[in-house]
Structure to design on (908 residues):
């Protein structure tokens, strides 16, 4: 077992180097660099521009820049300097990552809480009206683009507020400036937490609906497969109550692949919720990443790629281990 | 009795010592309230020596002082932290008297040491501050020295007209001094620094910052400003920047009444705001076409072309005039700007009244005149495809690019390209990536050639023509049509370029305002006559405001340089 884990962790190194080299080269192929946008400012002199490039090491050859960055990551855990913020990358991306985690964490929770019961229901009442309706809704959520659904939700929030004559739903954003009449930073932490949760209602719904369909279908398929197996028939023949058959005998086995998939959620957690964040003005990692790309803030991009590559590999490992843990048939020796 | 006498004498002494600046507002204001604006981008830093972009300096400018700026009513220099000044030595020396009694928010006095320290740090190439160009005049340094605790002296290598505009930010020496010696200035006042450790010498001080959401500043109670009735300013209790993703989100915030001031970018936004006001959804006002923005849009041809035939053609003033005759500015305003804008003919922005002149060569839209001028250059016949050819059968052809995503420029370029094709010029229009465009424009090959034909681009304009020397002087880094290599003048220059270079130098070193105007009027005439840059149209300035804010200019006084109010100090919330 430990042998296996060590081997997997060793595999991390070539994967990591390969992925980052590829990213580094692709960013460099794009024209210009982080300093280019200052060049059309008539009040900035050429020597200032040149000195900025020197300061940031942008005048060095690309392999040298990459080597310097990589050694920083390996030996000091230093992700580099953000060329846009002129401070270290971790301080730039930490807060957006945490903000995104709120959204992704809550919506993942919601997905599992809703998708598993729906999947079970759909399997048990196969081809019933309820099954068809829920399946239709789940696919509707999958088919509708997130950014568009987010816009509709914003419109919905404005409509609700206009009709209620008060602010029942927030229109974008993650926090309010004033909570109960006092500035946010002076409000008690419970009020601040509730405020964030209140703001997250709509984006969480948007993110959750898009992720739900897949899980519902997997759950339904798994349940159907398990329910048709011999031991379920045996249980029924023994006169076990139907609810016991479904929830105790069948569900436990059907849910195994879902448990194994949890590790795969890890990189998704910091990957952010995508364009929903942009549309709903959630200060998450997607807007930060887009900003870094448009400013060619190379080390912020690299930093995000580093962390998500790392989490992807660790997440996969975790999935494999979880699978071995829940399924006694699997052994890694 | 005696005690009262002593007290009143003390009070008098205090008055004599404290020298607050009087901010004359538009109307009498009241204290309190929150002023809310949107920002398209987060600040990148709170450190004045590191800041490079307006999203940072817009915030820094609210909590750090500067010596002098423009008086919003007359656009002449006025003192901020500098209470007065004296020009000596035929303009080579300026002695600034600082306001006594001005304090940082931590109680330390703001004095000559802070000013001299800030000047030294800004000028230091190792710090590489964005304000560094304010400390060098044609390669020679401007020397700053301390005279006494409240007097500083600036020595210029030659007379310098904008010498009285010293709007670089002054930072507290007792905070930055040690770090500067250790070479660690960039580590101070970053976004990670707790905001209560960032002290203020301006009207506001930082209260909170949340990345990607908002920056909140609170009134600085120890500020050195008063209104004309000696009440302390700023009136506003809070100043809030809300970060939004783009202009549309900013508009949405304004329409929802969640931000107070806005400048509509185009006719569509103007219509949306008008509609919202009319339907009663928003209590506010908008003034479409109140002024013109200071930015410029122009087409520049490449005189350093690899293809020597093209370089030769682009150097012909007749060719450029023909192109100027092909600018259908009326259609450009109608189509690209939705009717809100003005044609531009010369390099100085229209709102800069003290230098702008309308009395320059203008090229009316006339394909006939353009065709006649091209015929004089040898393009008389058309080939089978209907394109003009010269005597050797070479087609009159060039590529025109502009930066992708700028809708106004893309439309202007399309209108021009279409009109040019109508008289038989093969213009291949293509939008390209901004960074690629900058590379083509600013980075010549080792032999001095560049590989574009024509570029439609814009530059931010400003009130002071001397600050655009990089565009007009022969060795300037943005001498876009004819660019030298390595900071040198281009190899082959036309006589009018030398004249422009001379006029720019004269304009920067002449102190008499009337003579300066004369010089810049001539400069505009020379440029318009020789059209090194072919100007297009300037978008209108369409300011809008929420009715809850007071202290704003009435319609007639609005201009795009100053904005909607004279000073932030005298803006107030009505309720």
């Amino acid at each position: 077992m430990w042998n296996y884990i060590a081997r997997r962790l060793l595999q991390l190194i070539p994967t990591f180097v390969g992925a980052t080299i590829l990213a580094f080269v692709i960013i460099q192929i794009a024209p210009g660099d982080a300093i280019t946008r200052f060049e059309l400012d008539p009040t900035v002199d050429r020597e200032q521009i040149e000195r900025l490039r020197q300061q940031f090491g942008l005048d060095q050859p690309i392999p040298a820049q990459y080597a310097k960055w990589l050694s920083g990551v390996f030996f000091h855990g230093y992700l580099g300097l953000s060329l846009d913020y002129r401070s270290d990358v971790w301080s730039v991306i930490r807060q957006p990552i945490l903000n995104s985690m709120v959204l992704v964490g809550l919506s993942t929770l919601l997905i599992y809480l809703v998708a598993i019961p729906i999947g079970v229901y759909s399997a048990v009442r196969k081809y019933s009206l309820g099954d068809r309706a829920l399946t239709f809704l789940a696919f509707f959520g999958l088919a509708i683009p997130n950014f568009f659904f987010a816009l509709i939700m914003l419109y919905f929030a404005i409509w609700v507020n206009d009709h209620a004559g008060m602010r029942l739903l927030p229109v974008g954003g993650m926090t309010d400036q004033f909570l109960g009449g006092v500035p946010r930073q002076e409000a008690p932490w419970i009020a601040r937490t509730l405020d964030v949760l209140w703001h997250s209602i709509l984006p969480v719904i948007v993110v959750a609906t898009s992720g739900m369909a897949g899980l519902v279908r997997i759950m339904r398929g798994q349940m159907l497969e398990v329910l048709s197996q011999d031991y379920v028939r045996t249980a029924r023949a023994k006169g076990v109550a139907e609810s016991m058959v479904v929830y105790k005998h069948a569900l436990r086995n059907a849910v195994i692949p879902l448990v194994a998939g949890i590790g795969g959620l890890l990189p998704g957690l910091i990957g952010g919720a995508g364009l929903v964040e942009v549309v709903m003005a959630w200060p998450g990692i997607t807007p930060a990443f887009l900003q870094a790309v448009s400013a060619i803030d190379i080390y912020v991009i690299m930093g995000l790629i580093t962390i998500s590559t790392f989490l992807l590999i660790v997440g996969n490992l975790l999935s494999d281990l979880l699978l071995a843990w829940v399924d006694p048939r699997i052994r890694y020796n | 009795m005696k005690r009262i006498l002593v007290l009143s004498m003390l009070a008098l002494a205090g008055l004599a010592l404290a020298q607050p600046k009087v901010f004359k507002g538009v109307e009498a204001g009241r204290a309190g309230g929150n002023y809310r604006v949107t920002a398209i981008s987060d600040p990148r830093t709170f450190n004045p020596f590191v800041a490079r972009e307006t999203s940072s300096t817009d915030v820094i400018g609210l909590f750090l002082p500067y010596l002098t700026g423009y008086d919003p009513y007359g656009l002449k220099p006025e003192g901020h932290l500098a209470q007065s000044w004296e020009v000596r030595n035929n303009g080579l020396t300026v002695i600034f008297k600082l306001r006594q009694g001005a304090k940082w928010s931590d109680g330390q006095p703001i004095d000559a040491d802070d000013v001299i320290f800030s000047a030294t740090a800004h000028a230091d190439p190792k710090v590489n501050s964005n304000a560094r160009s304010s400390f060098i005049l044609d390669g020679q340094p401007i020397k700053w020295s301390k005279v006494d605790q409240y007097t500083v002296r600036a020595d210029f290598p030659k007379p310098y007209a904008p010498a009285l505009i010293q709007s670089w930010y002054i930072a507290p020496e007792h905070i930055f001094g040690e770090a500067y010696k250790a070479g660690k200035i960039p580590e101070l006042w970053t976004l990670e620094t707790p905001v209560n450790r960032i002290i203020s010498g301006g009207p506001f001080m930082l209260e909170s910052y949340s990345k990607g959401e908002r920056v909140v500043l609170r009134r600085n109670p120890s500020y050195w400003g008063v209104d004309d009735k000696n009440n302390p300013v700023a009136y506003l209790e809070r100043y809030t920047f809300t970060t939004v993703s783009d202009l549309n989100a900013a508009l949405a915030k304004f329409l929802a009444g969640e931000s107070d001031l806005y400048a509509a970018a185009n006719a569509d936004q103007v219509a949306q705001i008008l509609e919202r006001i009319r339907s009663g959804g928003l209590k506010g006002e908008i003034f479409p076409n109140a002024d013109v923005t200071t930015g410029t849009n122009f087409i520049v041809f490449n005189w350093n072309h690899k293809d020597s035939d093209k370089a030769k053609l682009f150097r012909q003033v007749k060719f450029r005039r023909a192109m100027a005759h092909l600018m259908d500015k009326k259609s450009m305003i109608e189509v690209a700007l939705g009717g809100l804008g003005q044609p531009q003919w010369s390099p100085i922005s229209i709102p800069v009244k003290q230098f702008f002149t309308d009395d320059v060569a203008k090229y009316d839209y006339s394909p006939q005149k353009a065709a006649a001028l091209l015929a004089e250059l040898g393009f008389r016949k058309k080939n089978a495809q209907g394109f003009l050819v010269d005597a050797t059968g070479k087609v009159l052809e060039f590529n025109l690019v502009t930066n992708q995503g700028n809708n106004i420029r893309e439309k202007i370029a399309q209108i021009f390209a279409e009109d040019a094709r109508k008289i038989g010029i093969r213009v291949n229009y293509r939008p390209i990536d901004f960074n690629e465009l900058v590379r083509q424009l600013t980075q010549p090959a080792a032999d001095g050639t560049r590989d574009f034909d024509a570029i439609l681009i814009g530059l931010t304009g400003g009130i002071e023509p001397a600050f655009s020397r990089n565009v007009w002087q022969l060795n300037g880094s943005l001498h876009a049509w004819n660019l030298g290599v390595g900071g040198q003048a281009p190899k082959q220059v036309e006589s009018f370029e030398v004249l422009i270079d001379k006029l720019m130098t004269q304009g920067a070193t002449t102190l008499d305002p009337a003579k300066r105007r004369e010089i810049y009027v001539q400069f505009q005439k020379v440029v318009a006559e020789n059209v090194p840059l072919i100007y297009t149209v300037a978008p209108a300035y369409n300011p809008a405001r929420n009715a809850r804010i007071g202290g704003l200019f009435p319609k007639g006084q609005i201009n795009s340089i100053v904005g909607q109010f004279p000073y932030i100090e005298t803006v107030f919330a009505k309720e």
